[in-house]
Amino acid sequence: MLGAQSHASPGPGPQTVAVIRQRPSLDRAEVSSGDHGFFRPHRLKAVVVAWLLLLPALVALAAVSLYPILNGIWLSLTNTSLITNSSDFIGIKNYATLFKDSGFWNAWTHTILFTFASTAAETIIGVLMALLLFERFVGRSVLRAVMLVPWAMPTVVTSKMFGWLFDGQHGVINYLGVKSGLLSANVDWLGSAHTALGTIILADVWKTTPFMALLLLAGLQTISPNLIEAAKIDGATSWSIFWQVRLPLLWPTLLIAGLFRALDAFRIFDLVYVLTGGGPADSTETLSTLSYKTLFSTLQFGYGSAMTMATFITEGIIALGFCLFIMRQMRAAR
Amino acid sequence: MTQSRHMMRAFIVYGGALLVLIWSAGPFLWQFSTSFQLDKALTGPTPSFIPHPFTWMHYRNAFFERHLQYYLRNSLTVALTTTLLALVFGTLAAFTLSRLNIRGRFGLLMVILSVSMFPQIAIVGPLYLIAASFNLLDTYTGLIIVYLALGLPLVTWVLFGYFETLPRELDEAGRVDGVSTLGLLWRIILPISLPSLVTTGLLAFIAAWNEFLFALAFTSNYQHQTVPVGIANFTDIYYVPWGDISAASAVVTLPLIVLVLIFQRHIIQGLTMGGLKE
Question: Which ranges does the record mark as transmembrane (chain A) (predicted)?
Answer without folding.
Answer: 46-70, 112-134, 146-166, 249-269, 301-327
